[in-house]
Each structure stands twice: as C-alpha cells, then as structure tokens.
Amino acid sequence: MEQYAVTGMSCAACAARIEKAVLNVDGVTSCSVSLLTNSMGVEGTATSDEIIVAVRNAGYDATPKNINAKTIDYSPDEESLKDRETPVLKRRLLMSLGFWIVLMYVSMGHMMWGWPLPPFFDDNHVAMGLVQLLLTGIIMVINQKFFISGFKGLMHRAPNMDTLVALGSMAAFVYSTVALFAMTDALVKGNSDLVITYMHEFYFESAATILTLITIGKMLEARAKGKTTDALKGLMKLAPKTATLYKDGTEIIVPIDRVVIGDIFVVRPGESIPVDGTVVSGNSAVDESTLTGESIPVDKEAGDLVCAGTLNQSGYIRCEASRIGKDTTLAQIIQMVSDAASTKAPIAKIADKVSGVFVPTVILISALTVIAWLVLGQNIGFALARGIAVLVISCPCALGLATPVAIMVGNSVAAKNGILFKTAVSLEETGKVQIVALDKTGTITKGEPKVTDIIPADNKSEEELLTIAYSLEKRSEHPLAKAVNLKADCEKIIAKEITEFEALPGNGLRAIYNGKRILGGSYKFISAKINVSDEIRAKSESLSSEGKTPLLFAYNEELIGIIAVADTIKEDSPYAIQEMQNMGIHVVMLTGDNEIAAKAIGSKSGVDEVIAGVLPDGKAGVINNLKKKGKVIMVGDGINDAPALTSADIGMAIGAGADVAIDAADVVLMKNSLSDVTKAILVSRATLKNIHENLFWAFIYNVIGIPLAAGVFIKFLGWQLNPMFAAAAMSLSSFFVVTNALRLNFVKLNKAKNVNTIVLSDSKADKVIEENDFNNGIENNIQTEENSMEKTLKIEGMMCGHCEMHVKNALEAIDGVDSALVSHENGTAIVILSKEVSFDTLKQAVVDQGYKVID
C-alpha cells in the first residue's frame, strides 16, 4: 500500500470526493482516505504522479510519504502526525474572539442590557451598522479559510462542510449589508420608522458568531483528534536516534542509520536498545512492556533476542545487530498501526455513502426552506434565518469521523497491550466471532516437552533412573530427549560415559555402559527387548491416557523405571478458554495427536470440542468446515498453521511464532499468551460498540437538527432555532464524536464479561472428533450432556434493556434457575440451572411476558 499525505480536506465529503477521484484512475484497485490522519492509502499499479494529478483535479493536494529502504526515518512520520491544526486554530480563535466580543457589545449589549456606548452612536443607527459591518468583515477575513475551501469545493462541484459554513455566514453578511444600505436610504428620506425596521434586520452578529463558534468546535476537534494518535507517536519516540557500536576494542556513538547488520553494539543500564539483535555477551533484565504490554522485565543472556525500543534495566550487554530500520519489530508495529488507520472498516461504508451526497442535499434543503417560508408569507429576514440555520447546523464531519477515530483509538489501545490489528476490517470482524479454533502445540501448550513423572522400578532410586536416562539421551537429538536432559541438568545429575551409542528403528536407543546394555524408548520398543510386567504396562497406558509420552529405561536386561514427558499446558490457557466461553464463544482444539492424548489435553484445558488426528495440510479443510457453523478465528503459531490462518475469517498469530505465520495472520499477538485472544475480542467489541454510538449520534443529530433548524416544529411546538445556536450545535457535534471515541482508552481488558453471542449448543460438548469423521459431517452432531446445568433460549421481540429485565426476572423466578444472562441485541437468554428444569417451563415463563421463544 502506497501512503500519501493529503491537504485541503475539511470534512467527510472531501474524503469521499478524493476516494472517488483516485478510484477512477486506471490501475488503482483500492483507495482509502483518512480524514483523521489526513492520509491516503492506495493499492494498484497506477503511478504516484497519476494519483497526485487526480487529487489535485478534485481540488486538493497530495504528496507521497517516502520511506528510505535502509532505515525508517522516524522523524518525518512523527512530524506528519504532529498536531499543526490546533495552534493555527487557536490563534484564529483568539483573534476572532477579540473582535467578536466588541461586536456583541455593540450589537446586543446596548439593546438588551443598556450597556453604555460612545456618544457618537446616540441615535446614529448607520454608524452602529457600519461598525458591525467592519467588525464582521474582519472576523470573516481572519477565518477566510472557510470561504476559500468552501467556494473552491463548490467550483469543483464537490461542496464540503466549509461550503455550508461559507454560504451561511456569507448569506447573513450580504443580507445585513443590503439592509444597512436600505436603512441609509430610509434615513436620507427621513423615514425613521423604516430605519428602526431595517435595524432589526441586521444579522452581522450571526455571521460572525457562526464563524467564531465553528472555529471553537474545529479547535476542540483538532485537539481531540491529536490525542487519538498519541499512542502511535509514543511508539515512534521509543527508537533511539543513536547507537553505541563496539569496534576494535573501542565504543563509538553513531547515528542509528549507520548501523548495519552484523555490527556489535553495546547497551548500558537505563539505555534503550537501538535495533533488533542477539545478545553475544553479558546478562540483563529488559523491559519489553512498550512492545508486549508485559510489565515484568525479561531476563536476557547470550543467545537471546532483543528488540529495538525496549529498555535495558540492569546489566551491560553486547549484541549483534540482526534487523535494522524498517525490519525491526518496533518499525513493523508502527507500520501495522499506521496501515490499519489508513484502511476502512466495512461499517464505515454507510457513512461514506451518506457523506458523498450530504452537502448538496443540505444546500437543497436550505434553499427549499427559504422558498417555503416565503411562500407561507414570512418576510425575507425570517426565511433567510431558517435557511442559514439549516446550513450551519448540518455536520458531515461527525459522520466522517464516527468510524476512523474509534478505529484509531481501538488500534492504539490494542497496540499498548501487545495486540496488532493489521486492518480496520480485522478490528471490526474479530468481535463478531462465534468459534475460536486453537492449535494445540505452542498455542494451548508451551510447545516445549517437559518431564512430568519419574517412576523408578522397585529397589531403584529416582537418581539412578535419571542417571541412566541422562547418559543415554544426552547423545540423542530427539525433542523428548531434550526434556530428559533439561531435567537431569536441573537435578545436577552427572552423565556416565557410554559406548556404542545407537538410535534404533522403532523409537529406541541403545548403548553400552560398564560392559552392560542400556536401553531406552517406548513401551513397544522396550517390551520387545526385555520382559515387562503387567503392572508396568498398565502404568504406561495410564500415562498415555493423560496425554503423556512414557519413556522406559532398562539396564543389564532389567527395567529401572519410567520417565513420562509431555508438552505442558500454559498456565493461563484454561482461564483464557473459560473467558472465551463466558463470552458465548465455542472453543475448538485442533491437534495431530491421537484421540487418547488429544482428549487428555482437551479435558485439562477445558475446550468445548477436540478435533484429533488433523495433519498440517488438513487444518485449512477443518477451518472451512467450521466456517459453515459461524465466524471462525484460527489461532496458531507455527509455519504449518499459515494455510489455516488464511482460511479462517480471522487469522490470529501468536507473536512468538514463525514470521510466515505472522504474515498470514490478520491479527498478531506479541505475547505468547492465549489470554490476549480474549483481549483482542474485547477491544474489537468495545470499538464496534463505540462506532455504533458515534454513528447513532451523527445520524440522529442531523435527523433532528435539520428539521429543527428549518422551522418544522415552529407551528406545533413553537421551537425556533437561531442560526447562532445552530452554529454552536454544529461546532460541538464532531467534538462529541471524537471525545466519545477517546473513552476507549479506559476500556478494561483484564476480565471478560458474560457477553452472549450465538451459542452452538445448549452445553459444553465433551467430545473428541477424528478428522475423517469431522469431514464426513459428524461435526453437526455435537453430543451434549444429559444433565446440562446451562440452557440457551433464542427469543424474538426483545427491544431494549427493559425487555431484558422482564425476561430475566421471569426466568429467575423459576425454581431451579440460579441466574439468567439476557441480551436483547443477540436475542438470547443463557439460563444457569441448579437442577433440571424443562424447556417447556422456561419457554412458558418467557411467553407469559409477551415474547416468543423460537429455539
């Protein structure tokens, strides 16, 4: 995606106009314009010159954002996000307020409150009118940007918000000027009554107030918009501008862009790490919270990776640079957050369509309003005031900002917690998930086999068993051998010298120690070499049923014991899975393990469903079948997960996984923690809710405001809106939308609430499905427990929180119902039972309240 900085935009109509112009360029496949960051992302084969010409022909300007191939130049990006609008608007506002206060004193203070005026104003209405004209003219010059941008858009047949402001204030000014000349003529003719009449036709203060209040709103909006990019600017400030290189025994401080791959750099306590690298000497604790959100420092020693922008807290370390410039983890995070802000969520399309025709429609409504009131017999002043009010109360900006500000803040909140949404689409869609498919190895489990049980034979000690096992496994490269070796190292076991080591077919090892044979391997291998008792066979099968791999060891033709090895479940996995279930999500585990081992891991982790025997190339097929039942998130970390990540509605990669998995994913979790899946869903749902609130406000504001300004309610309710109050309402509407989006900064991600979505079954399924059975359609026959303690009702007719309360109270009044979680939005009621309650009883309780139970 090519990024461009766009200038000249003032509202959503501008953004829609630019998108339309660029999409008409041959070779452009997609275009997304962000009013929030004044940027544009374009994909396709069109050249930058063709794109820039299209933008200029539409009445705006664009310049490409260039990124050096060797290094990301952080300062230009940071500079592009700098809040330049607020200082300019602040100066304009202060100057406008100075003249506006004088104008209001002259025009309103004397008439309404009897405030004193200089003697030459006594009965000199023309002088008073001329002063008002002069002061208003000065305020219009100060705020000339509204007129330049507004009439420029009109000439390009692309009217925008500035057009509405310019037309409204100009109409008030021109009409007041005509009234002033007419009053002068009446004064010359000696018609004093007519002079007073024309004096009341002055709308100079309305023209000036419209401009001043809109400027206040623009400044508040600019300040709030500036805060939405604080997180991104904070990330950009993390990268040091210099690095300390270690060359020929000396330390040299150089600019960051002079660091090349392979350079050795040093980092002292309290300094930030300049580029990604590998520790070559020294030990330290590094604070990685800026990238992962994890507050606990991570110990680093020789061979460990370090990332740019993280803080070295304790020791002195030397590192070898491995990734620089745009390839560093920090730079990629910045790019992801920036790209996500440049894309548009599907929900934004509604506002974009409305914004494209909004301003012309408002101008037409304003003209019809003036004509209608004149036809109804009102004077030109009254009719014009209604038309001006329609122009200045209408706010396309609130519509245009409703989605992008929430997306930007939501993305920033996620990034602070080590969650990276690559696009606005992924941020929106993640919250709609109904099924989460989890790869077992490295996602639910740690992906690192560990010794779980040491069972020595009779008359043998654990130390003796570990010594023999260590002596044999030390020569092996098998992953399970590493688990045994690690355990022996921790126990400070010393390996014996062995000879004639050999890895044999059938999962076995053989060697000679003190002239006697040592054997190690699976039950099948060992039982074929020596006699194994039924007790040992039963114990081996028991360990296998728990998802563990039993390794048997023999010395001198005698069994000396069993060491069980297993890929252990991450500490937070069961809790994270329970949180997903509390949110109404069906959790599935995919694994290539056999049915017994898979069931053991599935039972311990608490998933709803286990699909076993899934080969790496079969995961994508399983995901496609799951998608028939609802929206699916696939969470994985390995290279063999990439096809499944791409096949799912949302692919989510654990950040510790391979780069190809991250490339294939829509969401990247920087931490290797399953709890972040829940956090990502919560961020998405909170953002989507915020967007709905913003869009509701933007639409309802205009739906109510425009008829009110036009005077529709005057006859029925006596409501009449002065253009000045209309301007005040418009100035605050965008500010409200942006401020509401900023509330996302306070969303709590530590604990998932019981949020109801579509539930796939009445209870958790304690079932294991082989891949072949799954593909044959057995997935549609999920078995449920007979004595379910939880039932879900699908209900029609609930419209609000009061409906929820009625249904909840009715269900909880039934004997045996502990609680009921009711959602009118999803049309569901999840009933928690302490004893069996029939479906008919639950259904009747809901029907009695006037609602329909459909499932």
Indicate the multimeric state.
Answer: single chain
Overall SS class: alpha+beta
**Low-confidence parts, pLDDT < 50 over ≥5 residues?**
67-76, 752-767, 769-788
Strand content: 15-25%
Rg calculated over all Cα atoms = 36 Å
Mean pLDDT: 79
Key attributes of the depicted protein:
single chain, 6-stranded antiparallel β-sheet, 8-stranded mixed β-sheet, 855 residues, alpha+beta, 32 helices
Summarize the structure.
With about 850 residues, the protein is of the alpha+beta class.
Provide a descriptive summary of the structure in words.
By secondary structure, the protein is of the alpha+beta class. It has 32 helices and 31 strands. The strands form 6 sheets. The protein has an 8-stranded mixed sheet with strand order 14-26-25-24-15-22-23-27, sandwiched between helices. Strands 6-5-7-13-8-11 form a 6-stranded antiparallel sheet, with no helix packed on it. It has a 6-stranded antiparallel sheet with strand order 16-21-20-19-18-17, sandwiched between helices. A hairpin with a 2-residue loop joins strand 18 and strand 19. Helix 12 packs antiparallel against helix 15 and helix 14 (380-393) packs parallel to helix 29. The longest helix has 36 residues, at 675-710. The protein is elongated and about 135 Å long. It starts with a strand and ends with a strand. The model is unreliable at 67-76, 752-767 and 769-788 (pLDDT under 50).
